[in-house]
Amino acid sequence: MSPRTGANGVQLKKFECVLCDMFSTSPSSDVICRRALDELTPRFHRLPPELCPREKQSLVDRARERWEGRGLEPGRPDGPVVVDGRPSPWPFDPATSLPQCGCVRGGGGAVGNVRSAERAWRKEAQLANLIRCVLALVPEGVRGVSSDSPRAFRIVDFAGGTGHLAVPLALLLPDCEVVCVDLKKRSLDLMHSRVDGMVVSESVVDHKVHCQSSTLRKSKRIPNLHSYHGTIQSYESDFDIGVSLHACGEASDWVLRKCLERRASWVVCSCCCGKLRRDASNPYVFQSTGANEKQVTYPQSKTFASLGGCDNKVHTITAEDFDEVAKVSDYSQLGDIRLPKNACRRAAKSLVEWDRLLFTKEATQQLEDATAILAKMDPWEASCKNDILIGWLSLDTNPFGNAKPVSDPSCDNDFQIALDHLFGDQSSPGKTGRDQNDWTAKEAHEIESQIDEWVRGNREDYDAILRFPTRMGSRLRKLIHYTAEIKGLRHWGEGKKESDKTVLVSNRRI
Question: Which Gene3D superfamilies does the record match to this protein (predicted)?
Answer without folding.
Answer: R3H-like domain, Vaccinia Virus protein VP39
